[in-house]
Design a protein that fits this description.
The complex is a heterodimer of chains A (178) and B (210).
Chain A lengths: L2 H12 L9 H9 L6 E5 L2 E5 L5 H10 L7 E9 L8 E8 L6 E8 L5 E3 L8 H12 L2 E3 L34
Parallel strand pairs in A: 2-5, 6-7
Antiparallel strand pairs in A: 1-2, 3-4, 4-5
Chain B lengths: L1 H9 L2 H17 L3 E2 L6 H8 L23 E5 L7 H10 L5 E5 H6 L20 E3 L6 H16 L7 H10 L31 H7 L1
Parallel strand pairs in B: 1-2, 2-3, 3-4
Helix pairs in contact in B: 2-6, 3-6
Classes of the chains: A alpha/beta (178), B alpha/beta (210).
């Protein structure tokens, strides 16, 4: 009898929703630029903001310079393949960190398989250069306006993108130098 | 090297075998490996030259940083596909006579890395003389491999040229080796079977499941 209200409370807390934003910082950001936030997920103290693809550079440069956040460090940029049957299939994650305020946010961009293009954030953080090359190399995400979008891990003559879900584990043909 | 070819051609056949044994004895007594560590097996390879194991007892302790000065290439670890052309170039830079030791399960067969990134056996790139099992092999096993290679060297002839033998082997169809394609299969990327979207069964896999 007693467990029922507890259960409903827990489930209400863990359900992601754009209306319910416990973090005042996220709420302030959302008030500032409502069209830059598609959805906010807060889970276990981690903040994830899903951003429309066309606004990602504006969001990043704003969050870097905004006095409330001061995200001066891009700690990681990675891609993910959610599965061949998923729509949108690809996502690009930006893990931001502030060396003065010691907080972290994750930005997420969702991409369809037909149009795996997203603007490069190398103009905001220069470290994004190699991260975006890696994401291009392994997932085939094209970063527009990237200064040097080449493969970085796989050999230059590689066919395909190895971390895509439809790439066979053993590759397409046995390797030989003959 | 140049001298022995001249002598071998100039002298009658009868004397060649005696010359062989003399030259082979000289060769096997100072096998100089190339410093070429690829993965964790390289730690055991370094240990083989340490004071405890002392590979110098068998004349093979002088690891050379230049392939031009080395006789033996010890492939110590898994060979990534990106590393494969580099490894082949280092092998090509080594002067004749030269030998290859495939150290450990990964260099020999790919080991646990049965995936797109690792060459499934270094013998797809260079001819191998001695294979060592183990993950990683102990330094004693590497020393044993060097001793086996010395036995093999004693059976060789100065007339055997590795590049000639290898060219013959390349042309011959060896049973059990994987087929070599012209690269056209990479165009099958977008024509994968519907039933198993994530994997394409290779020859290995079909053999295992049956």
């Amino acid at each position: 009898m007693e467990s029922d209200p507890v259960k409903s409370e827990v489930s209400a807390e863990s359900t992601p929703s754009s209306e319910q934003t416990p973090s005042p910082l996220v709420a302030a950001f959302q008030r500032e630029h409502p069209d830059w936030v598609k959805n906010v997920i807060e889970d276990r103290g981690e903040i994830t903001i899903i951003v429309p693809t066309e606004h990602i550079v504006a969001v990043c440069s704003f969050l870097k310079s905004w006095p409330e956040t001061r995200f001066d460090f891009l700690s990681d940029l990675c891609g993910a393949d959610r599965g061949v049957e998923e729509e949108p299939r690809f996502e690009v994650n930006y893990h931001l960190f502030s060396t003065t305020k010691y907080h972290r946010w994750r930005l997420k961009v969702l991409l369809n398989e037909e149009n795996v293009h997203v603007a490069s954030v190398t103009g905001v953080w220069r470290t994004a250069n190699w991260h975006e090359r890696e994401t291009y190399d392994l997932f085939g995400v094209i970063f527009d306006n990237h200064p040097d979008l080449r493969r970085i891990l796989l050999p230059e003559d590689w066919q395909g993108h190895a971390l895509r879900k439809d790439f066979p584990l053993r590759g397409y043909e046995p390797y030989s130098l003959k | 090297m140049g001298l022995e070819n001249v002598i071998a051609e100039a002298l009658p056949e009868v004397l060649t075998t005696r010359l062989d044994s003399l030259i082979n004895w000289a060769r096997k007594s100072s096998l100089w490996p190339a410093t070429f560590g690829l993965a964790c097996c390289a730690i055991e390879m370094m240990n083989a030259t340490s004071s405890r194991n002392d590979l110098a007892r068998f004349g093979s302790e002088v690891f050379r940083a230049s392939p031009r000065q080395a006789d033996v290439m010890i492939v110590s670890g898994r060979v990534a596909r990106k590393m494969a052309p580099v490894l082949r170039r280092i092998y090509d830079q080594m002067p004749e006579p030269k030998w290859v030791i495939s150290m450990g399960a990964c260099a020999t067969s790919g080991g646990v890395f049965d995936n797109y990134a690792i060459v499934q056996g270094v013998d797809k790139i260079v001819p191998v003389d001695v294979y060592i099992p183990g993950c990683p092999p102990r330094p004693e096993m590497l020393i044993h491999a060097v001793m086996m290679l010395q036995e093999k060297v004693m059976k060789e002839s100065v007339r055997d040229r590795r590049d000639v033998l290898e060219a013959e082997a390349r042309d011959a169809v060896v049973p059990g080796t994987l087929p070599v394609t012209d690269g056209s299969t990479t165009t099958q990327q977008h024509a994968l079977p519907e039933s198993r979207p994530y994997t394409v069964a290779s020859k290995h896999e079909r053999r295992r499941s049956s």
